[in-house]
Amino acid sequence: KNEVEQSPQNLTAQEGEFITINCSYSVGISALHWLQQHPGGGIVSLFMLSSGKKKHGRLIATINIQEKHSSLHITASHPRDSAVYICAASSPHNTDKLIFGTGTRLQVFP
Amino acid sequence: DTEVTQTPKHLVMGMTNKKSLKCEQHMGHRAMYWYKQKAKKPPELMFVYSYEKLSINESVPSRFSPECPNSSLLNLHLHALQPEDSALYLCASSPGGHNEQFFGPGTRLTVL
């Protein structure tokens, strides 16, 4: 069992739909990261959070430390949101190492 | 300047070639990273440099040799690679501690 699990693995949506991607982890963490990777491209850090909720534009990330669970929400989805979304956990013992989930491949159709 | 740059974007090399990948950041970050990413997989950490010293080596084969000439530059020297080493190689930097990592666009490497 991976230390960081994501669901779903693949997700398709129509433009305008509300999207949720889930991340569960089984290890102690100092922070949880949400990353975005477009096809063939580099990785962009969307959020880093250790408690509560953060919002940036149409993206919202939440974390529940007690339940070891985080969610990434996209409101009013758009085809340009099509990408792979990866959650990754920072270990409290070595903050330079990220433990990556397997990623969620999102396709948003017009 | 808030980006990490990598050169080249694409690289094709034979198994007997020697080549180098370059990464540069001018954000004053103390930590720099090399990752390897195979298709449809998450990145795998290879090396971490902290304050220009190698702090993590994830048991990477010696045909990959990292170098950090100064606080802004990170190189990955490649020699006698195998076809299975073909992948996207990503560089990242971070202020360190509990901070996000900034990733470069990657170098897509093909070993023939």
Task: Describe what you observe in this structure.
The complex is a heterodimer of chains A (110) and B (112). Chain A is mainly beta and 110 residues long. Chain A has no helices and eleven strands. In chain A, a hairpin with a 5-residue loop joins strand 4 and strand 5 (43-49). Chain A is globular and about 45 Å long. Chain A starts with a strand and ends with a strand. The relative contact order of chain A is 0.35. The model of chain A has no long low-confidence stretch (mean pLDDT 94). Chain B has 112 residues and is an all-beta fold. In chain B, the strands form two sheets. In chain B, strands 2, 4, 5, 6, 9, 10 and 11 form a seven-stranded mixed beta sheet that branches. A four-stranded antiparallel beta sheet of chain B has the order 1-3-8-7, with no helix packed on it. The mean pLDDT of chain B is 94. The A-B interface holds A 30-31, 33, 35, 40-45, 48, 50, 86, 88, 90, 94-98, 100-103 and B 31, 33, 40-43, 45, 48, 50, 55-56, 90, 92, 94, 96-106, 108.
- What characterizes the major β-sheet of chain A? 6 strands, mixed
Helix and strand composition category of chain B? mainly beta
Largest interface: A-B, 24 and 26 residues
Quote the beta fraction of chain B. Answer: over 45%
Extract low-pLDDT stretches of chain B. none
Shape of chain A: globular
The count of helical stretches of chain B stands at 0
State the gist of this model:
The complex is a heterodimer of chains A (110) and B (112). With 110 residues, chain A is mainly beta. Chain A is built from no helices and 11 strands.
What's the helix and strand layout?
The complex is a heterodimer of chains A (110) and B (112).
Chain A: E1 4-7, E2 10-14, E3 19-25, E4 31-37, E5 43-49, E6 52-56, E7 59-64, E8 69-74, E9 83-90, E10 98-100, E11 104-109
Parallel strand pairs in A: 2-11
Antiparallel strand pairs in A: 1-3, 3-8, 4-5, 4-9, 6-7, 7-8, 9-10, 9-11
Chain B: E1 4-7, E2 10-13, E3 18-25, E4 31-37, E5 44-50, E6 53-57, E7 64-70, E8 73-79, E9 87-94, E10 102-103, E11 107-111
